[in-house]
Design goal:
single chain; 2 domains; alpha/beta; about 300 residues; Metallo-beta-lactamase, Chain A; 7-stranded mixed beta sheet; about 20% helix
């Protein structure tokens, strides 16, 4: 199962009742954070999932409302006892930006490993159990969307293992994806495992105009978290000028990508009651939720897939 939480839902500036946009996923106790605006560590602490097991921080782009909270997070991780390396992913320039912010957080008890991704093509990375993909957006700065996927192991088939007369104590190694040598023969996992099973897919997209590449990138996601900077369709000229999305545009993107569920986030400070505009999204995509700070859910593998 994959736990997900909208840490904050605001764009541009934190408000008294709305933290800046950030999103957290947790799988088997390990966590990945996408975006880290000013004050992000406060709702993270309110959530209560801890800090030490945060292994990955992904940054969509380098506007302040998506990265200014990083020094505080880095220091808090150290104070929480983190010593394992932290992986950071972001568009080109990531190392330079983070090192600049670290002027006020120079000493950390762990290493930072940087992955600078392209803002021109889709790329894929793996960090632990997290399979992370990036896709270029269309914003005023180089910007990427993220997809995090959790693969599901094929079902172990005991009858096939018995055909090779493999002792039961050795089954666990094959289940874990390891090769074994038995009776002078190399046994690889695919020899005793069933067909691939669908895993879990979560896509996250803010600060961009909708594009065809994004529609393909989010295809079939179990959850799509997308910016809805403006609820009113009359704001379309402003959305185009500043390269953001309307509620309706996010919903159209969700429909084209055939995702299961859409959460809207990254609201303009002027959008005081996003619920007023939910119909703008539901016209194009019915399974939509207006994101709220600390809104969370648990995504489960399909129990019907054998």
């Amino acid at each position: 199962m994959l736990d997900v939480c909208l840490i904050g839902t605001g764009g541009m500036m934190p408000l008294p009742d709305r933290w800046l946009t950030a999103f957290l996923v947790r799988y088997q106790g390990r966590m990945a954070l996408i975006d880290c605006g000013e004050g992000t560590q406060i709702p993270l602490r309110m959530l209560g999932w801890g800090f030490k097991s945060l292994d990955i921080i992904c940054i969509t782009h380098y506007h302040g409302d998506h990265i200014a909270g990083l020094p505080g997070i880095l220091l808090t991780l150290g104070n929480a006892g983190k010593t394992e390396p932290l992986t950071m992913i972001g568009p080109k320039g990531l190392r330079r930006v983070v090192q600049g912010l670290r002027v006020i957080a120079p000493e950390l008890p762990y290493e930072i490993e940087y992955i600078e991704c392209s803002d021109q093509e889709i790329q894929k990375f793996q960090v632990g159990d997290f399979h992370i993909s990036t896709c270029p957006g269309d914003h005023t700065l180089p910007c990427v969307a993220y997809t995090i996927e959790i693969n599901r192991q094929p079902r172990f088939q005991p009858d096939r293992a018995e055909q090779y007369e493999i002792p039961r104590p050795m089954w666990k190694y094959l289940q874990q994806g390891e090769e074994i040598i038995w009776n002078g023969q190399t046994i690889i996992p695919s020899m005793v495992l069933g067909p691939p099973r669908k895993g879990l897919k979560v896509s996250y997209c803010t600060d961009t105009r909708p594009t065809q590449a994004l529609a393909s990138f989010i295809q079939g996601a179990d959850l799509f978290v997308c910016e809805g900077m403006y609820g009113d369709d009359d704001k379309v000229s402003k959305a185009i000028e500043y390269k953001h999305m309307l509620f309706s545009e996010a919903a159209k993107l969700a429909a084209e990508g055939e995702v299961k569920e859409l959460w809207l986030t990254h609201y303009s400070p002027s959008l005081t009651d996003p619920e007023e505009y939910i119909q703008s999204a539901q016209t194009y995509f019915t399974n939509v939720r207006i994101g709220k700070d600390l809104m969370k859910d648990t995504l489960a593998f399909d129990p019907n897939e054998k």
